[in-house]
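Recall that a protein's primary structure is simply its ordered list of amino acids. Everything else, from secondary elements to tertiary packing, is in principle encoded there. The following example makes that idea concrete.
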Amino acid sequence: MTDSPNRSVSRRSFLTSAGAVGALALAGCTEGPGSGTDNGLSGSIRISGSSTVYPVAQAVTEQFRSQNPGVEFNLSRDGSGGGFSNLFCEGNSDFNNASREISSDEEEQCSSNDIEYHEINVATDALTVIVNNDFASEYPGVTDMSIDQVRQIWRADGATTWQDVNGDWPDEAINRFGAADTSGTFDYFREAVLGEDANHTSDYSPTEQDNTILQGVQQGRYAIGYFGFSYYQDNQDAVTAVTLQAEDGDSYVEPTLENAKSGDYPLARPLFTYPKVSSLSQDHIAEFARYFVRQSANDSLIADQVGYVPKTEEGMQSELDALNEAISNA
């Protein structure tokens, strides 16, 4: 999604869901820039949702709390969909992070519970496909794949061995590690790679934990996986990233921040957080939301520390203007 005004909406219907989630309480976080400054804010903030957006939220909450020690955070990795259905749309979190836009079913669930939200685009990711290092060394061609080949690997009725994808690759079973179906990364991958006519294979190891994907691919010689660029950037020696070709005749493009920013990388995607509008009536939550938006243009934090593409100053200001309007209406 390009830099654009946000939405504060609520629609009507029904959807029910339940489930338990794990949480990380950030009551004593590492000190960051501006530590020691107390702005007099106090209260708690519950943030649920995407594991992909989690590193951004974690960095921002740590910095905010160093300046506002009276504010405590409960931040968890539930998946975009798990966070929406089990927590946010049930009224049990103040923000839900998401690696894709809120779905129509989630909008209806929120509306049925009188939950109004505001959408904020906080960064851009380069969804990264990874393979095992030893496999890449033995078969260098596996590090260059077309989107069609990736589709063959991950569709329900697709390839079962690497040789099915390319006759020069080994006759070995494909060992897959990917996002669980409660994840926004799963939803985005299914839409961007598989398309409307194909289902995601069930023959894989699903998880909400990106480290589990990393370890699975690292330990399985004929393994493949996908997750957010941030996790690859932090573990570039552990696995090998695949360069991707969007269409026949196109160049193969590496997953980098520069290629995601330019739009050349085929799997560049926007990342979001969704504050609950009623929560924005509380000063500490409104100020944190503003801080989150301002940090979205912080190159040092978003690009250097976390590993995503930050907002432009102009894009950040547009988000901030829309947020302030939502706060004034809270």
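DSSP finds 13 helices and 15 strands in the chain. The two ends are 25 Å apart (CA to CA).
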